[in-house]
């Protein structure tokens, strides 16, 4: 029994050390890229900084950040639609890693389930980012619009109690583990098109009979590893907004600290309904923009 406990603790500490190493490697690569772009201007605006604080504050409390950030980007018209997925992944990567370190440390979950599902999400994000970084603007608008509506459906189903709230298990085995791997692979791929994995993972955890609290280290750990992997593709292709991404990071990190260590818990039901309304608006506007076709100029027929 002692050996089992020490193995679990070792696996947990290796995971945390890897998170720190991923954060360092990602930071070095991103800073090098920002230095190259410094002549173009990378200083974020106050609005971009505040988006970082607000979205990562609520992200830490379980609301999610991708849908809300997308909505605020579009409302403020600060990021082109085709650069939103990359900006979300790059800008929220470090705050999400901080969240993962906090929740993996303080919330109990079977560490082997955590490892396996994290690997599945990373593979999904790597393949997804390869595809998304090559998509044209219209393809990204259509993909994000449809995926946001699906995310809204999941959030509403959860709020209305149509989806099981979960059980008491802290890990997955057998068929449930296979379903979890498939789900996390798919959610990892969706992250690269700008759709957050928090709501889908929380719902999957409930459907598979796991304790709802176990969703926090799972969803934050998965995103903490997959976002830097996906971000590397976006940084290399230049398909992200450096100013907006830097704003998300600089004020997102203190947002995480305030939520995790000062506020800790809030009644968030009304906030989640507000998020639903905002996301529906964003999804519709995305689809409308994607479906707009340029009307060709009318040709005048002239007689001879």
Write up what this structure looks like.
74% of the residues lie in helices and 0% in strands. The chain is globular. The protein starts with a helix and ends in a 13-residue tail after the last helix. Helix 2 (46-60) crosses helix 10 (242-263) and helix 7 packs antiparallel against helix 8 (198-207). The chain has one domain. With 304 residues, the chain is mostly helical. The protein has helices at residues 2-37, 46-60, 66-76, 84-106, 111-132, 137-159, 174-191, 198-207, 215-237, 242-263, 269-291. It is built from 11 helices and no strands. 46% of the residues are buried.
Q: Which properties best describe this structure?
A:
globular; 11 helices; mainly alpha; 304 residues
Give a short synopsis of this structure:
The chain is mainly alpha-helical and 304 residues long. The protein has helices at residues 2-37, 46-60, 66-76, 84-106, 111-132, 137-159, 174-191, 198-207, 215-237, 242-263, 269-291.
- By DSSP, the count of extended strands is 0
Order of helices and strands: HHHHHHHHHHH
Beta-strand share of residues: under 5%
Mean pLDDT: 83
Between the first and last Cα atoms, what is the distance in angstroms? 97 Å
Secondary structure elements and pairings:
Layout: H1 2-37, H2 46-60, H3 66-76, H4 84-106, H5 111-132, H6 137-159, H7 174-191, H8 198-207, H9 215-237, H10 242-263, H11 269-291
């Amino acid at each position: 029994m002692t050996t089992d406990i020490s193995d679990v603790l070792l696996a947990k500490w290796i995971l945390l050390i890897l998170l720190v190493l991923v954060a360092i490697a990602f930071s070095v690569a991103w800073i090098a890229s920002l230095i190259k772009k410094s002549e173009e201007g990378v200083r974020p605006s106050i609005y971009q900084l505040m988006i970082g604080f607000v979205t990562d504050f609520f992200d830490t409390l379980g609301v999610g950040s991708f849908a809300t950030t997308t909505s605020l980007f579009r409302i403020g018209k600060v990021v082109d639609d085709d650069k939103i997925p990359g900006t979300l992944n790059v800008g929220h990567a470090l705050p999400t890693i901080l969240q993962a370190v906090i929740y993996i440390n303080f919330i109990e979950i079977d560490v082997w389930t955590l490892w396996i599902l994290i690997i599945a999400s990373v593979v999904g994000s790597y393949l997804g980012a390869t595809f998304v970084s090559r998509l044209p603007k219209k393809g990204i608008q259509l993909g994000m619009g449809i995926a946001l509506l699906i995310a809204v459906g999941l959030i509403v189903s959860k709020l209305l109690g149509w989806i099981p709230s979960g059980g008491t298990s802290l890990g997955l085995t057998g068929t449930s583990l296979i379903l979890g791997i498939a789900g996390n692979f798919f959610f990892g791929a969706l992250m690269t098109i700008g759709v957050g994995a928090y709501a889908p993972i929380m719902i999957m955890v409930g459907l598979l009979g796991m304790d709802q609290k176990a969703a926090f280290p799972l969803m934050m750990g998965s995103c903490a590893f997959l976002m830097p992997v996906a971000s590397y593709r976006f940084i290399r292709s230049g398909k992200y907004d450096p100013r907006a991404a830097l704003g998300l990071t600089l004020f997102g990190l203190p947002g995480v600290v305030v939520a995790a260590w000062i506020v800790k818990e809030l009644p968030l039901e009304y906030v989640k309904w507000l998020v639903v309304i905002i996301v529906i608006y964003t999804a519709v506007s995305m689809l409308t923009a994607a479906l707009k076709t340029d009307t060709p100029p009318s040709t005048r027929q002239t007689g001879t």
